[in-house]
Amino acid sequence: MSLGRQIAFWVGALVACVLFLFVFAPILLPFVAGMILAYLLNPIADRLQQFGCSRLVATLIILAAFVVIFALVLVILVPVLGHQIGGFIGNMPRYATALQSFVTRQLQGDGKISQILGMSMQDLQSSLGQVVTQSTQWLASLFTSIWTGGQALISVVSLLVVTPVVAFYMLLDWERLVEQVDSWLPRDHAATIRELFQEMDHGVSGYIRGQVLVSISLAIYYAATLSVVGLNFGLLIGIGIGMISFIPYVGSFLGFLMSVGVAVGQFWPEYTSVGYVVAIFAFGQFLEGYVLQPKLVGENIGLHPVWLMFALFAFGYLFGFVGLLVAVPASAAVGVLARFGIARYKASPFYRGVAGGDHVP
Question: Which residues cross the membrane (predicted)?
Answer without folding.
Answer: 7-40, 60-82, 152-172, 274-292, 301-318
